[in-house]
Design brief:
Blueprint (H helix, E strand, L loop, with lengths): L2 H21 L3 H21 L4 E4 L2 H10 L16 H11 L8 E6 L5 E7 L15 E5 L9 H13 L2 E6 L20 H13 L5 E5 L6 H4 L5 H4 L5 H12 L5 H8 L12 E6 L12 H4 L5 E6 L18 H16 L7
Parallel strand pairs: 4-5, 4-6, 7-8
Antiparallel strand pairs: 1-8, 2-3, 3-5
Helix pairs in contact: 1-2, 5-12
Length: about 350
């Protein structure tokens, strides 16, 4: 028999079996159910897992287990898009964007530049009606991210339900404000962040204060005076961009010198306040083998929550993951735990 004819006959047979099976003999339904059961077994045995909690301080662990229990619960990523790259790519398009009314503030820097801050004052807070003592959360968006990112909007929404105030630190030149000096973002430089922290604290010195950052958190006319922007814009990878632009802007001899100085591995040992870090081991930008687990174990102030799935700031969950993500739940519980029970972190 001709191969094409055989293939066509086989296709027609299978179609008829599925059609009859669904409404008659049950063969097609059995195939569907069998596949569904097999997929569910694989999902429950290999995908849905409890995160790994890494912390050298037993008291910090107990604090998290009691006041931030989400870090010990099984994370069930969205069953149809659990793979890291898929979660990373789909999150910006799937998740909703809660409405947030900001109050913008521009502050000057010592070098003549300016930083844009977007405030969510939460003046309708029922739990903290006194603005002077209302807890404040400083939010740090990722690289090129601003206060308009969906994950920032969700973090503000979570904070709003708890009665907290939020302020978003937009890196220079990316939130629509003019870039007054030829200086943008550098992962190893914290001068702008320090200026923002001092400014926010000076405005509300009696308010509890903490920060939450996501990922790593451009105006060409000013930059073109010092850099070959045509060459910079030809970059096709983050490494190429940093080699031609970021490392040059901040005076590093080589790109490797910049990355070594910016690496968190060198800074974890000096962390002096309790820090909780959430990372997926299938993160396409910060994969499992690059997570400084052993270094983190050397500092009692550091705790890592490592999920098996989640991608890069994806952490989608639920059949249709439009709203709250696993990252949002970790953020909400930890922020509330610190503000309301922070004195117990090292006293348990």
């Amino acid at each position: 028999m001709d191969w094409q004819v055989l293939t066509r006959e086989l296709s027609l047979y299978l179609e008829s079996q599925v059609r009859v099976g669904l409404f008659g003999s049950g063969v097609g339904l059995s195939l569907v159910l069998g596949f569904g059961v097999a997929y569910a077994c694989y999902y429950l045995s290999s995908i849905a897992k409890k995160p790994q909690l890494v912390a050298s301080n037993d008291r910090f662990c107990r604090f998290l287990e009691e006041y931030c229990p989400v870090v010990t619960e099984t994370y069930y990523p969205t069953i149809w898009c659990w793979e890291g790259r898929v979660q990373t790519l789909l999150r910006p398009f799937i998740t909703s964007r809660p409405q947030v009314q900001y109050r913008n503030e521009l502050i000057k820097t010592a070098d003549g530049g300016q930083i844009s801050l977007d405030w969510f004052d939460n003046n309708d807070s029922l739990y903290y009606p006194d603005a002077s003592t209302r807890p404040t959360v400083l939010l740090l968006p990722g690289l090129t991210g601003t206060s308009k990112e969906s994950y920032i909007l969700h973090m503000i929404h979570q904070s709003e339900t708890l009665g907290y105030r939020c302020v978003v630190f937009n890196n220079r030149g990316i939130a629509g404000e003019d870039l007054l000096t030829p200086r943008t973002y550098c992962a190893a430089n914290t001068e702008d962040l320090e200026a923002v922290i001092h400014h926010v604290h000076s405005l509300h010195p009696s308010a509890p204060f903490m920060a939450a950052g996501v990922s790593m958190g451009g105006h060409r006319q000013m930059l073109g005076k010092l850099f070959d922007m045509d060459l910079v814009m030809k970059a096709r990878t983050v490494r190429e961009f940093d080699k031609q632009f970021t490392s040059v802007m901040f005076g590093y001899r080589t790109i490797d010198d910049y990355y070594e100085d910016a690496s968190p591995c060198r800074k974890l040992k000096s962390v002096g306040i309790p820090v909780l870090c959430l990372n997926s081991v299938d993160d396409v930008f910060s994969p499992g083998h690059a997570i400084p687990v052993e270094t983190a174990k050397q500092n009692a102030n550091v705790a890592l929550v490592l999920t098996s799935c989640g991608g890069h700031i994806g952490f989608l969950e639920g059949i249709w993951p439009r709203k709250c993500t696993y990252m949002d739940r970790v953020f909400k519980q930890f922020v509330q735990a610190v503000f309301e029970h922070g004195n117990k972190i090292f006293s348990m």
